[in-house]
Amino acid sequence: MEYVIMTLLVVFDQWSKIAIQNNPSMHGHVKVIDSFLYITYVKNYGAAWSMLDGKVMFLVGVSLVELAVLVYVMYKFKKEKQTLAKWSIVLMIAGAIGNLIDRIQLGYVRDFIATYPFGYAFPIFNVADVCLSVGVILLAIIMLKEDTSTKKEK
Q: Most exposed residue of 12, 43, 87, 88, measured as fewest CB within 10 angstroms of its CB?
């Protein structure tokens, strides 16, 4: 089941990027929710927050290593039946694949979701970034819970 969900997330990520990219009316700053959510198509030649701008081959290499590690960890969690951890890894793999496809095919990542929480201009992101972020947050929660449980046992 995790492979089906992973595939659907990658397909949705790529579909959303193509839909925005191929719709010139979405290339400006299109309001979805006033003062909070906008569609703003940008080409990101770096990583998060445009770090390592222009280092596409390096980022592709890092993404491939990241994917290899995540697939190994998912396999390990699958054997141990750690369901929530497994789903966090599934999300991270889907996100990594979505952005890797862009980097390999285009040399950049297509971002288009602009948010302004509390008036702060958060960096523009995409569906793959949401998958990565939610996966990392879930894994952090799992690790904190396990750390707390371990401390209570001692």
A: 43
